[in-house]
Amino acid sequence: MRDAVTTLIRTYDNTGRYLDQSALDSIKSYFDSGVDRIKAATVISANASGIVKEAGSKLFEQVPELIRPGGNAYTTRRYAACLRDMDYYLRYSSYALVAGNSDVLDERVLTGLRETYNSLGVPIAPTVAGVQIMKAIVKAKVQEAGTDPAVVDAPFDYITRELSEVSV
Ligand SMILES: CCC1=C(C)/C(=C/C2=NC(=C\c3[nH]c(/C=C4\NC(=O)[C@H](C)[C@H]4CC)c(C)c3CCC(=O)O)/C(CCC(=O)O)=C2C)NC1=O
Fold first, then answer.
1. Ligand 1, residues 95, 117, 122: which to mutate, most atoms within 8 A of Cβ?
2. Sign of the four-CA dihedral 109, 111, 114, 115
3. pLDDT > 70: percent of the chain
4. Which of the four pLDDT bands, split at 50, 70 and 90, describes residue 81?
5. Closest atom of ligand 1 to CA, residue 130
6. Which of 67, 98, 99, 160 has a 20 to 30 A CA-CA distance from 106?
7. CATH 1.10.490.20 domain position(s) in the chain
8. DSSP labels for the chain?
9. What is the pLDDT, as a whole number, of residue 165?
10. CATH number of 34-164: 1.10.10.10, 2.60.120.10, 1.10.490.20, 3.40.50.720?
């Protein structure tokens, strides 16, 4: 599991190069955005269960067939599994925010996920919609807390891109 700095150092060390201007700029931007990313992670940690609950309600409002007979989140067990998955995406996004890097998402969340979802008939499009709804809720809360919400995008968009790619 790597963060922005270790990833960069590894890349440069693999080819025996000193850090160049582009590397140093990207490390600087990692430190410059650090306070905002940590504040955003703090907002997530403090509101996690509320964020998941609200995002779930919004998702099932938008795609009500998910929780009707025949829907993938129908039955208490599958409904709970769906919210638990949303909670995974939120928690690991908060780790990725702090790390300034999506490596933890690849390593702990996304590997093999599409295959699992496909074999269980978990629909990707509404899952991705749920991730984007969580992003919007987190951004609103981060903004309310007086922090630049732009830092929030990266991990949620990464999950969205990686999941959508393989679904088709
Ligand atoms: C930390 C990394 C990690 C992830 C990401 C993860 C996901 C994950 N979600 C699963 C199931 C599931 N995931 C969902 C999710 C949904 N169904 C819907 O209709 C919605 C669109 C969506 C919620 C937004 C559902 C309903 C199941 C249960 C499916 C079933 O058993 O039939 C399963 C199968 C095993 C199980 O039920 O626990 C896994 C492995 N597990 C992990 O360890």
1. 122
2. negative
3. 98
4. very high
5. 24
6. 67
7. 34-164
8. ---HHHHHHHHHHHTTPPP-HHHHHHHHHHHHTHHHHHHHHHHHHHHHHHHHHHHHHHHHHHSGGGGSTTSTT-SHHHHHHHHHHHHHHHHHHHHHHHHTSSHHHIIIIITTHHHHHHHHT--HHHHHHHHHHHHHHHHHHHHHTTS-GGGGHHHHHHHHHHHHHHH-
9. 78
10. 1.10.490.20
pTM for the full model? Answer: 0.96
Cα 80 to ligand 1 centroid, rounded to whole Å: 9
**Whether pLDDT at 166 is above 60:** no
Q: Could you identify the residue written with the tokens 């998955």?
A: 85
Choosing from 52, 63, 85, 135 the residue with most ligand 1 atoms within 8 A of its CB, the one to mutate for a pocket test is: 85
Measured in Å, residue 15 CA sits from the centre of ligand 1 at: 40
- Calculate how far, in angstroms, residue 121's C-alpha sits from the geometric centre of ligand 1: 10
**pLDDT tens track for 84-137:** 999 999 999 999 999 999 999 999 999 999 999 999 999 999 999 999 999 999
